[in-house]
Amino acid sequence: MKIVVLVKQVPDSGEERTLRADDKTVDRDAATKRMNELDEHAIEEALKLAEANGGEVTLLTMGPGDATDTIRKALSMGPDKAVHVSDDALHGSCAIATSKVLAAALGKLEWDLVLCGAESTDGGVQALPHMLAERLGVGAVTGARKVTVEGATVTVERQTDEGYEVLQTEGPAIVSVWDTINEPRYPSFKLIMAAKKKPVESFALADLGVSADEVGLANATSQVLEFAPKPPRQAGVKITDEGEGGAKLVEYLASEKFV
Amino acid sequence: MTCARVDSGVEVMGHMMKVERFLPSEEAEALLGLTREIADGELAPRASDFEARGEFPREVLRTLGQAGLLGLPYPEEHGGGGQPYEVYLQVLEELAYRWLTMAEAVSVHGLACYPVAAFGSDEQRKRFLPEFLGGELLGAYCLSEPQGGSDAASLAAKAVKDGDEYVVDGVKAWITHAGVADFYNIFCRTGVPGPKGISCLVADADNPGIQPQRRERTMGLTGSPVAQIVFDGARVPADRLVGGEGIGFTIAMSALDSGRLGIAACAVGLSQAALDYAVSYAKDRDQFGQPIIGFQGVGFMLADMATKVSAARATTLAAARLRDAGRPYSMQAAQAKLFATDTAMQVATDAVQILGGYGYVADHPVERWMREAKLLQIVEGTNQIQRMVISRNLARG
Ligand SMILES: Cc1cc2nc3c(=O)[nH]c(=O)nc-3n(C[C@H](O)[C@H](O)[C@H](O)COP(=O)(O)OP(=O)(O)OC[C@H]3O[C@@H](n4cnc5c(N)ncnc54)[C@H](O)[C@@H]3O)c2cc1C
Fold this sequence. Notes:
The structure holds two protein chains of two kinds.
Chain A: E1 2-6, E2 9-11, E3 33-35, H1 37-53, E4 56-62, H2 68-75, E5 81-85, H3 95-107, E6 113-117, H4 128-136, E7 139-150, E8 153-159, E9 164-170, E10 173-177, H5 189-195, E11 200-203, H6 205-208, H7 245-255
Parallel strand pairs in A: 1-4, 1-6, 4-5, 5-11, 6-10, 7-10
Antiparallel strand pairs in A: 2-3, 7-8, 8-9
Chain B: H1 26-43, H2 47-53, H3 58-66, H4 85-98, H5 100-119, H6 122-133, E1 139-142, E2 158-162, E3 165-176, E4 183-189, E5 198-204, E6 210-215, E7 226-237, E8 241-242, H7 248-284, E9 286-287, E10 290-291, H8 296-324, H9 330-355, H10 366-376, H11 383-396
Parallel strand pairs in B: 1-4
Antiparallel strand pairs in B: 2-3, 3-7, 4-5, 5-8, 6-7, 9-10
Helix pairs in contact in B: 1-4, 4-5, 4-7, 4-8, 5-7, 7-8, 7-9, 7-10, 8-9, 9-10, 9-11
Bound molecules: flavin-adenine dinucleotide.
């Protein structure tokens, strides 16, 4: 079984992040760069499936040159190889253009299953798996908290607000996962060393047959017009208990729709 | 609501280890990065809970094993990490910074692998080391006895050959990992009284003659199980004898030279944690209208603590580099153990002082660190014994 995992380098969501003043794109240098958290879960699931069924795991990332750090880090969890799509023209690409590029890259690879995180912490669009499926003419089952593969049949438990739904499709397919699906492994010392020697193939736009005027900020289908820093934290509400503190607490929680 | 309790107003959360390291290779950088990632993710958040409950974190140790951290200083051909001691000790230090019980567990396991690795036959190394170093198994080292810890050469547990087995009888005391270990090194008497009659056996834990007793109620490292072990006619195959009859004491002392460096590194990590915590606190805690770090009485105390921690690290790593270069390092290891563990005791005690009343309660970790530091002055040769080793070396030289 051949699995491709989509991996994205993002600014750490635990730190203060911002957009760039000049072109209003994500400021990738504002915070520590790291692998999108959910992608770690996608890699873990891919490794588990490959361990159970035999097979190969390839990482696919689109990102600037320094995304190699994330690729090495991701490889040190255990995948066999990686493909890095990088081109200056890609800066500021919208989700639709990104899906075009990734679909082209997937067209050059052999796979039975594509796994990815349900969203990225910088974009949060959640639409990429569907766009890819549409372009590639395969099924997309998204938001999984469990994946099983039997022969060509892919079954997932799709997490919903109320519980879960069971969805099934015939492979090849694209599956996106939430963090409830598994607990990602740590790399091991030996795998870190081995990761340095694993093959990483680079593609530029020209290699994928995508032209520069189909991607990038200038051709984006969506645009950030304006942004403002989030308002500073308000001082907390203090409730003094003079006999009816409990009632006041509930009143406050209800007013904020917590209860 | 009325507050039942007002705290110092100082929260010392997630203080970061600020140590500049000079590592010998890119590989070592990557290893230290991995260690920090796991230590921050798995050790730091659990330490105080597990210690309060007295629970041994066997699963967390397995995570360290899977990451390859349980066999670092041993050769790659036998499944180890092939790392110099200089690097291995810095890994221990990072672990001890977050949770001493875990660092000590890694160090004791390393000690337990030593006899086979350094004195075992080729056949024994091939047979045992891949499992010992693989990360799943945990070892223990049984030298001390109830009637004799410092005077190890007087040990009484005996092993008598019976066909192709040894039959072991006696009592070992203070055995770290008693009851949770998968294999035990047993130092026992096979011949004449004194150091020349001692041998080393390595036995599997699932032996009906090996009977761990009730856990000791220790002052610190309450997560780490320590107990006596009764050997009651324990039958150990004769091919489990390491290095031949009568050289057990040589093995034990050689293992302790290495083990002491591990304890020194644990002490450096603990000291650094106490120092960093005390500095953060002293910067945030106001008295008389200013942060207490500004009072010379506190600032100079911190300065002395910081200086000692740096010196302890330097002494420990200098001894490790001698070992890595294949030179004699026994005296230097004793010096490192002595200095680093005395430093840990001092620094942890001073950290409690700097937190004042808040240092004395379990809401902050410094009182626990103070209790933990004490152990390091006792194990693997008390600090009196280290001075004995050093002075004998001086007398000989
Ligand atoms: C929590 C814990 C874990 C341990 N883990 C292990 C383990 O895994 N394996 C193991 O084999 N042992 C272990 N030990 C035992 C430890 O190594 C011994 O406790 C230590 O060596 C001291 O021996 P003792 O307790 O018998 O003290 P004693 O030897 O009786 O010493 C008592 C005091 O006399 C001093 N003293 C003794 N001889 C001299 C001398 N010649 N000159 C000056 N002073 C002297 C000592 O320094 C000490 O202060 C552990 C101990 C503890 C507390």
